[in-house]
């Protein structure tokens, strides 16, 4: 069996899009060509990598297993190509990021990066901190912007090392408790009188911070709002403006909304955003990103 890298790239693209048509568009190939290459790969492996259910494409159990190894092989191959040219960023850099960081911090930094090194193919994937850490470990992304888990403050380096990762703080965020405009003044979590906490799915550090604040400050368990999971910060703000929810959002994200009406903001906590990557992963493309971020971090005035 001899599987080339192009076949692995094609497979990973189809696995990401879960659509032959979309994968073909992304790859600049005819859909029939993509279908044929997938069938050839399945024949070589002796398994079905994809299943069709209700006219939709899904990874088979074997396809899910193979995807992990295909991503690792492609990642190592790309890293090896870049290491051969240590003085000039090139190739690709796959970046994971929290939604807040992608919205408020990365546009300027990545625009600066692209102006200086347009030949580097930058890509950004967003998600909560915990899944982003897993993505770095699995080589699905090369680096990620995350908020350290609750309880790890001051121990971030040792926590990362136990996961085979390294990192450094790059931004400082002021987290704000956002309440409806007409909500009475509060002095503790026990004073919050809303029905729900609007937040992202589990794995979001900001969600954990909010839950811990309510647990520690509430007089009794009934003072902790129900969780309402939403998919965006705009959705969180809408829930708050409706008068039924509270949420925790970085001040930098609120500032992007241009003085939103219908809310009040209360400082809750200051927390660092870290850039993390795998131990011994040291490509020119990553080094350039760290250099640009170091300048931004200094400008932020920590």
UniProtKB/TrEMBL annotation:
UniProt domain HTH lysR-type: residue ranges: 3-60
Keywords of this entry: DNA-binding, Transcription, Transcription regulation
Lineage of producing organism: Bacteria, Pseudomonadati, Pseudomonadota, Gammaproteobacteria, Pseudomonadales
This protein's name: DNA-binding transcriptional LysR family regulator
Top-level taxon in the UniProt lineage: Bacteria
GO molecular function: DNA-binding transcription factor activity; transcription cis-regulatory region binding
Signal peptide coordinates: none
Family: Belongs to the LysR transcriptional regulatory family.
């Amino acid at each position: 069996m001899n599987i080339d890298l192009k076949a692995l790239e094609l497979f990973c693209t189809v696995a990401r899009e879960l659509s032959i048509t979309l994968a073909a568009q992304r790859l600049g190939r005819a859909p029939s060509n993509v279908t044929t290459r997938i069938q050839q790969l399945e024949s070589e492996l002796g398994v079905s990598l994809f299943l069709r259910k209700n006219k939709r494409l899904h990874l088979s159990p074997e396809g899910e297993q193979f995807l992990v190894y295909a991503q690792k092989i492609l990642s190592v191959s790309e890293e090896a190509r870049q290491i051969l040219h240590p003085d000039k960023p090139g190739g690709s850099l796959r970046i994971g990021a929290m939604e807040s960081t992608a919205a408020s911090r990365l546009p300027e930094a990545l625009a600066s990066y692209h102006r200086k090194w347009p030949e580097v193919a930058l890509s950004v994937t967003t998600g909560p901190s915990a899944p982003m850490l897993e993505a770095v470990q699995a080589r699905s992304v090369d680096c990620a912007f995350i908020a350290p888990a609750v309880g790890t403050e001051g121990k971030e380096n040792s926590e990362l090392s136990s996961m085979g990762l390294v990192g450094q703080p790059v931004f400082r965020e002021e987290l704000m408790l956002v309440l409806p405009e007409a909500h009475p003044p509060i002095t503790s979590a026990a004073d919050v009188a809303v029905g729900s906490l609007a937040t992202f799915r589990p794995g979001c550090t900001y969600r954990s911070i909010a839950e811990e604040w309510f647990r520690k400050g509430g007089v009794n368990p009934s003072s902790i709002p129900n969780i309402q999971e939403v998919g965006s910060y705009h959705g969180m703000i809408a829930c708050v403006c409706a008068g039924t929810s509270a949420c925790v959002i970085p001040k930098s994200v609120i500032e992007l909304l241009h003085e939103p009406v219908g809310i009040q903001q209360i400082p809750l906590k200051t927390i660092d955003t870290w850039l993390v990557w795998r131990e011994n992963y040291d490509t020119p493309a990553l080094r350039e990103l760290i250099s640009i971020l170091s300048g931004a971090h200094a400008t932020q005035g920590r």
